[in-house]
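User: Sequence recovery, please. Input:
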């Protein structure tokens, strides 16, 4: 049902109705910004990256073969933009820090305040597909059906990813609790 609606919006956009693309933007902007924020950890940078994602999607929309797969397609563009951003950051960092000594990694000396930072840090340690499943299901509030469609997973595949993410998250949080002095 959601995929059919996306497909009709894609067709309308390709037929010249730019407001249809605006509806696609409204449907997917939050998930795209979440992907970009997950990579950049900066709201402004994430917003700029999301704009780049939608600009690319709009210009490459005629290349989309299956209009009903717009959700997974826009997510893949967002991931590509994030990889490109990370590569450019590494290149820039290498250019500016080539002759500097390596920084010493700080150790955790105090308990992280209970405002969700500890959970966000733990989620950031998960593999990308697990982070995205949790983002969609719990943070974005999407139904499992919508979330799995956006991520391009089967019904059982989505639930396996969510289960694995929750188990891994519990392990991360419990191991961090053990290391707190």
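Assistant: Recovered sequence (181 residues):
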């Amino acid at each position: 049902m959601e995929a059919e609606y996306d497909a009709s919006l894609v067709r309308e956009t390709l037929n010249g109705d730019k407001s249809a693309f605006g509806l696609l933007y409204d449907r997917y902007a939050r998930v795209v910004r979440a992907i970009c924020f997950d990579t950049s950890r900066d709201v402004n940078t994430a917003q700029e990256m999301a704009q780049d994602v939608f600009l690319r999607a709009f210009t490459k929309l005629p290349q989309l073969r299956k209009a009903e797969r717009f959700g997974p397609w826009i997510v893949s563009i967002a991931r590509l933009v994030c990889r490109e951003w990370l590569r450019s950051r590494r290149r820039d960092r290498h250019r500016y820090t080539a002759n500097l000594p390596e920084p010493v990694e700080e150790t955790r000396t105090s308990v992280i305040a209970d405002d969700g930072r500890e959970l966000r840090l733990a989620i950031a340690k998960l593999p990308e597909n697990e982070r995205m499943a949790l983002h969609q299901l719990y943070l974005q509030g999407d139904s499992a059906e919508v979330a799995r469609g956006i991520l391009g997973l089967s019904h059982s595949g989505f639930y396996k990813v969510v289960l694995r993410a929750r188990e891994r998250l519990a392990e991360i949080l419990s191991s961090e609790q053990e290391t707190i002095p």
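Residues 76 and 151 are 9 Å apart (CA to CA).
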